[in-house]
Automatic annotation (TrEMBL):
Biological source species: Oryzias melastigma (Marine medaka)
InterPro entries: HHH_9 (IPR041692), NA-bd_OB-fold (IPR012340), Ribos_protein_bS1-like (IPR050437), RNaseH-like_sf (IPR012337), RuvA_2-like (IPR010994), S1_domain (IPR003029), S1_Tex (IPR044146), Tex-like_central_region (IPR055179)
Keywords linked to the UniProt accession: Coiled coil, Isopeptide bond, Phosphoprotein, RNA-binding, Ubl conjugation
Residue span, S1 motif domain: 932-1005
PANTHER family, per database record: 30S RIBOSOMAL PROTEIN S1 (PTHR10724), S1 RNA-BINDING DOMAIN-CONTAINING PROTEIN 1 (PTHR10724:SF10)
Biased composition (Polar residues): 1-12, 24-33, 42-54
Alphabetical list of PROSITE patterns matching this protein: S1
Coiled coil (UniProt feature): none
A Pfam family assignment: HHH_9
Name of protein: S1 RNA-binding domain-containing protein 1
GO biological process, one term: translation
Spans annotated as Disordered: 1-125
GO-annotated molecular function: mRNA binding; structural constituent of ribosome
Keyword Protein biosynthesis: no
Length: 1009
């Protein structure tokens, strides 16, 4: 089976044999008719000269006409009560001779006395338009919109933007255009509309490098109906170019999978790796969630009758769930009525407004009502006005943006200390091992001793420290608070009193005192708690993302360990009382023999003879021992037998593998279905052995969270962790590729574009109709439509040798019946073998591959041969890849992928670039270790603070992250994260040994290739 090559995303992780990035960005389009796949043809033309240009021009002309002024006011008819009329379509009214054509919306605006259509559509009154200040970016001088600043200058709130931006292909950086809406029945085909069909039904048109696809991403600006631009905000939050973010969002909405985008749409995503694409996907989903929740809140407030224009604008400007909750919390049903709402209920909102806009007309004594509680005196009226002003200050986006800017310039710290409850418990039971065990606490409070008096800058705290503090706080062992300098309060108060919340005209001393008190009250009672929550939420979110990223890197390394093929393996699940469970597996992972031996009881010699008999009978030379209970004793037993040449003439060696999740899998429904006649303990031994023969095929059967990777698993979002781990499993399975004729159903369900149901249908079709002869036959399977086929076809292989072997061993296939037969007739598939189906080349590029073979005088029968490889290399030397791509009417990246697929040898596997398990014959103990001893080992697990290395002494040593530096890593591993991955072979030096606590400190010398 031929595997694929892929680009490295982390150290020794998915290496895809990429060439250098080019500056050419190209998109693709696909046409499917009668089940036939046509090649994706790139469009290198400039959008202004492409076929879209007439359409764009027509659109602009149409919109320019709509934006003309309405009828003169003197022609306005007297207002009359509106009479309900039946909603029915009608033909557009033809303008009279010499009269300018206007839309119905423009006429209504003129009748209502609104002179500025764009201002009305933006949801701003006249004063807001005149005094609008944009802290997120600078307003363009041409009035076309706002320019977003870089990430480091990003602020948390933005003013509502003008909706309906123009098509990206024609706009400059940060520019936008404003158009009033027009009635749908009056639109011509080329007009822009918010009612355009779902993007997944549209085809991707061409776009030059640096531009998003015109015509499709135009709806992305307002499809969430928020005041911010989704693509600009995505670009700001992820540091990815705007056009790339637009393309990724469009591809996701078209139901494209991450592996498909990374391999077959590189130009559209600017060669991002899978992790970066998933980051954009995650942020986009978060923004969609915020938008959805915002709309729900708006509808709820509208139903309750408390929604105002200002409140709606504030809600639509929220960019996170925390900001939205801050604005919405006072209006939640069942929540305590806030001081501001009580004051508003008394009618003091007018007094607060007068204090800001016309303080010379305000006399608080006129608002006194002696018989009404809250208005009985001037003091109570003053307090009510202060509460309303404090609420206005705390909800104002500009004010919140300013105070956050002040905090960013200050030394904000997070502080943790031991809680009074934990301290009291500790004093009551000093030195007791189980101190603090009550109420579900950890048995040892001293685990958090590092954080009893901990203070750190909010910008320098490490992710693992944040998660540890959160865990201690949840266990009521730690008390945590955020310290904001007093200078922030003083600067903020001065700015509010003398700038943002200064009355518009001369105010009396008592009025200025009210504003000062309101600002101080707002900061202490509302803004400071909000800032604390924001910092804690931000730190937790960043720490969770780093922890999940560590899980992803570890899982990828674990899944891509090179398989040990071509030998018989004995899997051993060690144990004391119930013995060691054995499973002898054939080179193809078939179960040959299972047994139980008692190596740690009386009669060890008899059990040793039994082992020798089994290993000699089945020619087994490799032993795989699980790292669970009795692992060290079992390893010692085998090492002693090997040292005495007990298995002579067999050259026996052993290795230790991680058995995490084996016990859980042994009692799962999948294990029962696969091995119904075996005891669960013996199933564990089978799983341990197969983890070395085919790590990917075996580990995908286990829930990733049970594989034993990463740290703080229970302190991160379970949903986010599950989605990330499932994504990396899909990535690894897809990039390695599967042979559809021998692949298990469990493995196949993780291929991009497939799921459990489709994998089951493929397996059933294979059982009923025999092996697949080509990829086209996948279209005959129920549930595999055009989109599913497009996503999975490039990752599914048809190995000619496997096909021949399965055909020779299987019974003659039965006549196809039912839906499969009807679908076969419709799909026009054939049973002939296509050699390209064993490569990573996608069927949409088969025609390009055929033309390239003709260009180099090769044939499909020469795929993977040295002759064809030499011809391809010679052709590339005489003509550049870019020139060949233009000749073949394709993109350079597609051509590079085709060249890789044609030149890779049969059976190529990307995992061959990753290390295999270390098989050894001897053993050392911790008592043999001394500082300065140089050893080789294999990384067992990586965390946010370092890497644990198995050096063969029974417990892993720790390489602190400070010892993992760039100069100690190969050039290929110098990436954004210095964390080593599980399975990597390293050379280390012992720094210290704590035999009592069984802790070994190591220094990294280098990574072994």
């Amino acid at each position: 089976m031929v595997r694929t090559s892929a680009r490295a995303t982390t150290a020794k992780s998915v290496c895809y044999n990429e060439y250098e990035n080019t500056d050419t960005d190209m998109s693709f389009s696909q046409t499917v008719s009668d089940g036939e796949d046509e090649e994706w043809k790139p469009s290198n033309s400039d959008p202004s000269t492409s076929s879209n240009a007439p359409r764009m021009s027509a659109t602009k002309e149409k919109k320019a006409a709509v934006k003309r002024t309405a009828k003169p006011k003197q022609q306005k008819l007297p207002k009359v009560p509106k009479v309900p009329r039946e909603a029915k379509p009608r033909a557009p009214r033809k303008p009279a001779a010499g009269q300018k054509k206007t839309s119905k919306r423009a006429e209504d605006s003129a009748e209502a006395g609104v002179p500025d259509i764009k201002r009305k559509r933006a949801g701003l009154d006249k004063d807001q338009c005149e005094a609008q200040i944009d802290f997120q970016g600078e307003k363009n001088t041409d009035g076309s919109g706002f320019t977003i600043k870089p990430k480091e200058e990003r602020l948390s709130f933005v003013v509502p933007q003008f909706p309906d931006t123009a098509n990206w292909a024609d706009e400059g950086e940060g520019s936008s255009q404003v158009h009033p809406p027009v009635k749908k029945e009056n639109l011509k085909e080329e007009d822009f509309t918010f009612d355009e069909p779902c993007l997944k039904k549209l085809k991707t048109s061409g776009a030059c490098h640096g531009q998003a696809t015109a015509g499709q991403h135009s709806s992305l600006t307002n499809d969430l109906d928020m005041s911010w631009n989704v693509t600009e905000l995505l670009s700001t939050l992820t540091c990815v170019e705007k056009w790339v973010c637009g393309n990724i969002v469009n591809l996701l909405r078209e139901e494209n999978t991450v592996p498909f985008m990374v391999r077959y749409r590189k130009e559209m995503i600017n060669h991002l790796d899978a992790d970066a694409v998933r980051d954009v996907q995650m942020v986009y989903e978060e923004l969609c969630s915020v938008a959805k929740k915002t709309h729900s809140v708006i509808q709820t407030l509208k139903k309750d009758g408390v929604l105002t224009t200002e409140l709606e604008e504030t809600l639509r400007s929220c960019r996170s769930a925390d900001e939205l909750d801050h604005v919405y919390s006072p209006y939640k049903k069942g929540s305590k009525l806030t001081k501001a709402r009580r004051a508003k209920a008394l009618g003091l909102e007018g007094a607060a407004s007068a204090l800001l806009n016309a303080p010379q007309t305000l006399d608080l004594r006129t608002w006194v009502q002696p018989a009404t509680e809250g208005l009985s005196s001037v003091k109570e009226v003053t307090t009510g006005v202060e509460h309303i002003l404090a609420d206005m200050i705390a909800k104002d986006p500009e004010t919140l943006t300013y105070v956050k800017t002040l905090c960013e310039r200050s030394f904000v710290t997070i502080q943790s200390s031991v809680s009074k409850t934990a301290l009291k418990e500790k004093e009551e039971k000093p030195g007791h091992k189980n101190a603090g065990a009550e109420h579900g606490r950890p048995k040892d409070i001293e685990k958090f001793q590092l954080y009893f008096e901990f203070t750190c800058n909010i910008q320098r705290i490490q992710p693992h420290q944040t998660l540890a503090i959160n865990r201690g706080e949840s266990l009521k062992i730690l008390t945590v608070k955020v310290n904001i300098p007093d200078k922030v309060k003083s600067d903020f108060t001065w700015w509010c009193v003398n700038n943002r919340w200064r009355p518009k005209s001369l105010a009396k001393e008592e009025h200025r005192a009210i504003i000062l008190n309101a600002v101080e009250d707002s900061y202490k009672r509302l803004i400071l708690p909000f800032l604390t929550r924001s910092y804690r939420t931000k730190l937790t979110s960043e720490a969770e993302k780093e922890s999940i990223a560590m899980f992803v890197r570890n899982l990828r390394q674990r899944l891509l360990v090179s398989p040990v093929r071509g030998c018989v393996i004995m899997g051993v699940d060690p144990g004391f009382r119930h013995g060691c469970k054995l499973a002898i597996l054939s080179p193809t992972s078939q179960i040959i023999h299972t047994d139980v031996v008692y190596l740690h009881n009386a009669g060890q010699q008899r059990e040793a003879e039994k082992l020798r008999h089994l290993m000699t009978k089945y020619s087994c030379t490799k032993v795989v021992i699980g790292n669970g209970t009795a692992c060290r004793e079992t390893e010692t037993f085998f090492a002693d037998l090997i040292a005495r040449r007990f298995f002579h003439p067999l050259d026996v060696s052993y290795c230790i593998t991680n058995e995490a999740g084996a016990s859980i899998y042994s009692v799962s429904a999948e294990a029962v279905k696969e091995m119904p006649d075996l005891d669960p303990n013996l199933r564990s031994a089978v799983s341990i052995g197969r983890r070395v023969q085919d790590p990917l095929g075996e580990l995908v059967k286990i829930d990733p969270k049970h594989i034993g990777i990463g740290t703080y698993q229970h302190d991160v979002s379970a949903g986010a962790l599950k989605a990330a781990l499932e994504g990396v499993v899909q990535e690894c399975v897809s990039f390695v590729g599967v042979d559809v004729n021998i692949c298990s159903e469990i493995l196949m369900r993780h291929v991009a574009g497939l799921n459990a149901g489709r994998a089951r249908n493929i397996t059933e079709w294979r059982e009923q109709n025999g092996p697949f002869s080509n990829r086209e036959q996948l279209k005959l399977v129920k549930g595999i439509g055009p989109k599913s086929y497009q996503q999975c076809a490039g990752f599914i292989r048809i190995d000619p040798q496997t096909l021949q072997s399965v055909k020779s061993s299987a019974q003659p296939a039965a006549t196809t019946t039912g839906k499969a037969a009807a679908k076969k007739c419709k799909g026009k598939t054939v049973d002939s073998l296509n050699p390209l189906d064993q490569t990573c080349i996608h069927p949409e590029s088969y025609s390009v591959a055929q033309r390239f073979l003709s260009l180099v005088d090769g044939t499909v029968d020469q795929i993977g041969s040295a002759v064809l490889k030499h011809r391809v290399e010679s052709k590339v030397k005489t003509n550049s890849v870019e020139e060949l791509a233009r000749t073949l009417d394709t993109t350079p990246e597609t051509l590079k992928l085709i060249m890789d697929g044609l030149t890779q040898p049969p059976g190529f596997d990307i995992r061959q670039n990753f290390g295999q398990p270390d098989f050894k014959r001897g053993i050392i103990s911790m008592k043999d270790l001394q500082p300065g001893t140089v050893l080789t080992g294999r990384v067992d697990n990586t965390t946010l603070f370092g890497a644990f290395v198995d050096i063969g002494v029974g417990c892993s040593g720790l390489i602190h992250k400070s010892k993992i530096t760039l100069d100690k890593l190969p050039a290929s591993q110098r990436r954004r994260s210095l964390a080593l991955g599980p399975g990597e072979r390293v050379e280390v030096r012992v720094l210290s040994v704590d035999r009592q606590r069984e802790r070994i400190s190591l220094d990294l010398i280098g990574v072994l290739q």
